Amino acid sequence: MSPVDSEPQPLPAVSRTAVWTAQLRADESRLARPCVIDSWAAEFVAAAGPVGPLPGGPEARAFLHDGVAVRSRYFDEYLLDAVRGGCSQVVLLGAGLDARAFRLPWARPVDVFEVDLPDLLDFKNRVVGGRVPATARRVTVAADLRDAWADALTAAGFDPGRRTAWLCEGTLAYLEPDQADMVVRTMAANSPPGSEVGAENATSLDRLGCLSSCRDALSADGAPWQWSLRDPGAWWAERGWHTAAPSMSLPYVAERLTRYLPMLREAGDMGGWLLTGTRRENHPAGETEEPLSGTKRRAGC
Ligand SMILES: C[S@@+](CC[C@H](N)C(=O)[O-])C[C@H]1O[C@@H](n2cnc3c(N)ncnc32)[C@H](O)[C@@H]1O
Predict the structure, then answer these.
(1) What is the maximum alpha-carbon separation in the chain?
(2) For residue 100, is it within any domain?
(3) CA of 14 relative to ligand 1 center, distance in Å
(4) Using a 6 Å cutoff on CB, does residue 233 contact ligand 1?
(5) Range of the domain at 52
(6) Does 161 map to a domain?
């Protein structure tokens, strides 16, 4: 790996979570039968230097590892299908150290927009250096999802008239509920019919006993989990998206997650942790935000 030469800025707390996530993908990539192989993950982790161990005890780490492994595979397949099906833009909100622009075998040329906070993207771009994906056009968009991020996205070349595959993976939980709400409405307002979404919902992160030490450590570090949903399907529908959860009968899902089901039920988890879906046509929730067009753009958040 080429070292990141000059003194890097320390990442903000919420962006250090991207390094922990990459660490989990690096660990997964070394297994004999991994859900996902991410050869970039270990490189990012090495370049980030010490960010401390993943907060939480062994039970939390095992659960988070299996969860990240499954969600990575599930969203890999979602994005590949969406692009095969006609989406020509991918937007990763809170992209972190996601290397899908490089590592996925895209069926055709696609624009991949990586939206995240400036320090995280500076760090990532320093590690990436001059390397470019084989098929995708990778565009980084430094923006805060609590602000007018859609303006920055459009300024970077995003076209709200083209079908888009959006992904919110490991991101929304770090936003306050009204901020998460506005992010999802803004996606809907900038999505023509046929656009798709993939999202991770914090359905019981706030209640799972095994995650209490992780929750406390993240809060103390300044990156608390702030958002969770009891009924994700209904919540997304109200905001313009038809969604469905992955089947537990998918072999890799069953193999890695079945053992956690009693714990999730005990925490009152109703399902819907991972969802994929499509834009509901003419749904008013998506129309509450002014779609972006021309040079005058409005983010709506
Ligand atoms: C747990 S990481 C997940 C990263 C990536 N999606 C993945 O799964 O590997 C959360 C990411 O969300 C980003 N993030 C959190 N709050 C944000 C905000 N307000 N604006 C932009 N990005 C944010 C962080 O910088 C971090 O990269």
Answers:
(1) 52
(2) yes
(3) 7
(4) no
(5) 13-287
(6) yes
Q: Does any domain span residue 6?
A: no
Instruction: For residue 249, tell me if it sits in a domain.
Output: yes
Supply the pLDDT for residue 238. 95
Cα end-to-end span (Å), the chain: 39
> What would you report as the CA-atom Rg of the chain, rounded to the nearest whole angstrom?
18
Mean pLDDT to the nearest integer, 96-102: 98
Residue 202 has pLDDT above 60, yes or no: yes
> Which atom of ligand 1 is closest in space to residue 20's alpha carbon?
1
Question: What local confidence, expressed as pLDDT, does residue 297 receive?
Answer: 21
Could you tell me if 114 and 89 are in contact, meaning their C-beta atoms sit under 8 angstroms apart? no
Residue among 104, 144, 171, 183 whose CB has most ligand 1 atoms within 8 A, to mutate: 171
CATH code of residue 270: 3.40.50.150
* Number of domains comprising the chain: 1
Q: Select the more confidently predicted residue: 181 or 221.
A: 181
Cα 18 to middle of ligand 1, angstroms: 6
> Is it the case that residue 6 has pLDDT exceeding 90?
no
> Which of 234, 251, 238, 246 has its CA nearest to residue 285?
238
Q: Is the pLDDT of residue 290 over 60?
A: no
Ligand 1 atom nearest to 21, measured from its CA: 9
* DSSP-assigned letters across all residues of 180-239: HHHHHHHHHHT--TT-EEEEE--SSTTT-GGGHHHHHHHHHHT-------S-HHHHHHHT
Q: Mean pLDDT in the chain? A: 90
pLDDT > 90? residue 160: yes
Over residues 131-141, the mean pLDDT reads 98
